[in-house]
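re: ur question from earlier - yeah i can do the single chain one, its not a big deal. heres the input i used so u can compare w yours
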Amino acid sequence: MKKSIINLRLDEQDKKAMERFCSDNGVPISVGARDAIKLYLENQSSSSKPSIPEEDPSELESWEVPFYNEDFTLLKSWLFTRLVHWVTSKRYDPVIRSNRNFYTNCMYLIASMDDNSYFPNDILIEFNKIRKELYDYLYGQTHNRTFFQFARVGGFDYEKFDLFMRNMNYSEEGMKIIYLDLNS
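and the output i got, formated as tokens:
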């Protein structure tokens, strides 16, 4: 069955109650919300006169802000997007051109990825190759300061990175979406 995404607005206390309930029962919020909606609809269909309260138009906005946990927020950040673009471009042009501030920010971003649940260990190993070289470039005495070694053959595994990026699909709630090709 095809699934759709629905954004909804909750009072802060209802949101906290839902988060607490889901946490206590070990289920993701999206699963708890789906179950609550199913239960509500079952109860409404069993009663003779369903009553669905209308939303207050003053509370509606032209767009809804989706729920993101801290790990998911990193994936949606501008710096992560810039890092991905930079890493990809270094594959074809390993020359050092950016400023030290950018490299420092990338080094700290990669370090923060170690504690992020969205990055598997094999990708963390690849990004830590970059972090180590950035550290050597910024603080070490042995870096050649002309081009990045991680971009060369045997350094960063671009095929593994490409596969990770192609399969990195998440729902609005930050839940991993896995696409299965049933036609092949």
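The chain has a mean pLDDT of 77. not sure if urs matches, ping me
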